[in-house]
Amino acid sequence: MTILEESWVLSPAVALRPEPFGALAYHFDNRRLTFLKTPALVAVVRALGEHDTVGAALERAGVPAAQHAAYADALEGLALTDMIRPQRQEAIA
Amino acid sequence: MTAVQERLVAPLPLVEQFERGLDAPICLTWELTYACNLECAHCLSISGRRDARELTTAQCEAVIDELQRMQVFYVNIGGGEPTIRPDFWHLLQYAVDHQVGVKFSTNGTRLTPERAAFLASTDYVDIQVSLDGATAEVNDYVRGPGSFEMAVQALENLQAAGFRDAKISVVCTRHNIGQLDDFKALADRYGATLRLTRLRPSGRGADVWDDLHPLPEQQRVLYDWLVANGDGVLTGDSFFHLSAYGESLPGLNLCGAGRVVCLIDPIGDVYACPFAIHDEFLAGNLLSDGGFQAVWQTSALFTGLRQPQTGGACATCSFYDSCRGGCMAAKFFTGLPLDGPDPECVQGHGAAALLGERTVPASTQDHSRTTPGRNQPVMLQLSRRDDVAVPPVPACAESPLAGFLPTREESAT
User: Fold this and answer.
1) ipTM for this model
2) Which of the 8 DSSP states describes residue B395?
3) Which residues in chain A are contacts of B73 at CB distance < 8 A?
4) What does the pLDDT look like over B17-61, one tens digit per residue?
């Protein structure tokens, strides 16, 4: 199963600050700063929690299927620093 | 990392985007007071005496409210010595309660065991204890007598209280480049992280820069040490001029002044960067010019700094992409043109520029004490003059015939 079939959500410790290129993401607990470099990625990250799967969030945001793998890579990168979390884990927490 | 992912997410850098400026700063320094118990020889802000126009508690709270609205996620608080302000601990708590994390710099003077215990109980607070020598001898030479012991005591108090990962902040000088491993050991001993920053010729630093800035061969030692220690040591991204040695250092390798960085001073003046407290880099005042956001987003100075830079005399250098001309403040305060090489350019262009005609600008504010206090460093060193081969001899101890060499003819008559 890839991240596209999993349920994820923006970490509650993270704030997104809109910027011309996309957004700046700041994690208040681990104090990491990350840059989301396209507005589309920002829209996807914000909407993750409203969808059962990452794939559904991508489709809803209008990301072409050909780019889904690239978005999956990007989201896995964000998961490494707890910018996004599995929905289930968040429900337990 | 794939090329496509690189386009979507980036830890750093976004150089071109940053050069055009952001809606709010990433790294904001706020000097809370010009008052200080020390009189460090290289003080960037020429601190000592409190300014009567210092922002009040209510004005400081309003600034924090505005930073929260702008989503400035953390602020670097300094001074002077910020903990001297009676409302410092209140403002610290106020900022944290308003989602503005605080990293404050201190010489350690107020970090008692009780304060250390309070700090250990907070979130979003980072502490930088300043130390410019791994031994009292080297540190106190620039920071003043007793300052090493005070800083180490503060680190001990923090560790004993369970405060984790304090920072030891070191300005790299000619005298402490040889102590880099000792600093690391000191940081390890206190469970702290080492932070090294560049000596700037700003503020009182202008008076001592010639004698304190690392020598060319020491710059290489520093660069190699930074490359070897990588992410394990913090630098505030202040050594990007060293990237022209070859491999880029971690972090943001460009001057962020007025683009992603700025400074609020104790009276609410907003400057382009913490190393440029001078009228030339004054963007406005947050009390008289409509608040911090208005100054950040619309001041003529910051708008100008966000225009594309040409690189000037550096444009033809093959290392320009690595160092991007170096530090604006270092150039300005050594009297060099802003579109030319950094005075410490590792390709040697700065040394050549320093030999040319230049005028070091006078400071436009000075909060130094009018009379020296007991903590003032005494910057005297025992050394020999190269042009004197033997110790001086009092005239009366010399032979009355010294230098008289009789000739045969004279002795014959």
Assistant:
1) 0.86
2) G
3) 15, 17, 26, 28, 33
4) 788 889 999 989 999 999 999 999 999 999 999 999 999 999 999
Rounded CA-CA distance B181/B183 in Å is: 5
Could you tell me if B20 and B306 are in contact, meaning their C-beta atoms sit under 8 angstroms apart? yes
- Specify the CATH number of the domain A3-92: 3.90.930.70
Q: How many residues does chain B have?
A: 413
Residue keyed to tokens 């889904």 = A68
Q: Which helix (H) or strand (E) is A39 found in, with range?
A: helix A39-47
Looking at residue B68, its amino acid is Q
Q: Which residue from A19, A20, A37 is facing B9, i.e. has the nearest CB?
A: A37
Write out chain B residues lying below 8 Å of A21, CB-based: 14, 17
Model pLDDT, residue B10: 57
Q: What is the DSSP letter of B126?
A: E
| Chain B residues with beta carbon closer than 8 angstroms to that of A18 | 23
Q: What's the distance, CA B53 to chain centroid?
A: 24
Q: What is the pLDDT of residues B221-273, one digit of tens each?
A: 999 999 999 878 999 888 989 988 988 887 777 789 999 999 999 999 999 99
Rounded to the nearest angstrom, the minimum Cα separation between B360 and chain A is: 37
Pull the structure tokens for residue B336: 């060099």
Q: Strand B261-264 to strand B269-271: parallel, antiparallel, or no bridges (unpaired)?
A: antiparallel
Amino acid letter, B363 = S
C-alpha pair distances (Å), B274 with each of A61, B30, B136, B232, B302? 41, 8, 27, 24, 14
Percent helix, strand and coil across chain B, each rounded to 5? 40, 10, 50
CA distance A23 to chain B (A): 10
B373: Cβ contacts below 8 Å, ≥ 6 apart: B39, B48
Cα B279 from Cα B285, distance rounded (Å): 12
Contacts of A73 in chain B (CB under 8 A): 2, 4-5, 8
Cβ of B405 under 8 Å from any chain A Cβ?
Answer: no
Q: How far is B71 from chain A (nearest CA, A)?
A: 6
Residue with tokens 């009228």: B279
Sign (positive or negative) of CA dihedral A37, A41, A47, A52: negative
Mutate to test the interface with B, among A14, A16, A28, A45 (most CBs of B within 10 A): A28
